[in-house]
Specification:
207 residues, alpha/beta, Rossmann fold, 9 strands, 32% helix
Length: 207
């Protein structure tokens, strides 16, 4: 029987990071790559930065169950699965989030999917607020509508906008339209192992 792949091959040891970090992820539309982005972040903080990382599925998309079936894990139970320093929490609803956030972790990644509006208070409390947009032409207006809706939210100018798998020209055009910085998230054929380009981007954004 073919062995399922293990996650998070390390590029290098970068040392320890002090202080707790919370990262909120919100998607403009379904399929734009929120969980993909979260997996790359989990690899960066857990494997590269050597931080104890909790990745929470704060939406009803059930992507984590499929992720659990696709790979081998060090530890698994009914509500979570772990490898190394990263623990994935399935279907972490509002009742479970506070308990997980009080756990012994250095980094928390909260995947709100496209349900950000229902969790806006929690999203705003995160250290870093990341909005994942879609580079497809037919979805680009959604990002501008999202920005308009968020205009009156305090601190929205500090939100980080990422577009996975998009060309540089597309990202530059959208940045000009939105009048704010937007970053291109490189294509990773295996989202469980980040490339040097992705590492440099995350190191620039998060240190």
């Amino acid at each position: 029987m073919k062995r399922k792949p293990m996650l998070f091959k390390r590029l290098s040891a970068v040392g320890n990071h002090t202080g707790k970090v919370t990262i909120g992820l919100a998607g403009i539309n379904r399929g734009c790559g929120v969980t993909y982005t979260g997996m790359l972040l989990a690899g960066y903080f857990g494997s590269e930065k050597r931080m104890r990382t909790a990745f929470l599925e704060c939406n009803n998309h059930t992507d984590f169950s499929r992720l659990q079936s696709a790979y081998e894990w060090d530890r698994e139970d009914e509500v979570s699965f772990s490898l190394g320093k990263v623990t994935f929490y399935k279907q972490a609803d509002c009742g479970r989030i506070p308990g997980i956030l009080s756990g012994d972790y250095d980094c928390f990644i909260l995947d709100f999917g496209t349900d950000c509006a229902a969790h806006m208070d929690e999203f705003i409390r995160c250290t870093y607020k990341i909005v994942v947009a879609d580079g497809a032409v037919w979805n680009q207006d959604r990002m501008l509508s999202f920005l308009e809706a968020a205009e009156n939210i305090t601190g929205n100018k500090e939100w980080i906008f990422l577009i996975p798998l998009a060309g540089r020209k597309t990202v530059n055009r959208l940045a000009n339209m939105a009048k704010r910085s937007i970053y291109r998230l490189p294509y990773e054929p295996d989202p469980t192992s980040i490339s040097e380009e992705t590492f440099k981007l995350f190191n620039f954004l998060f240190g």
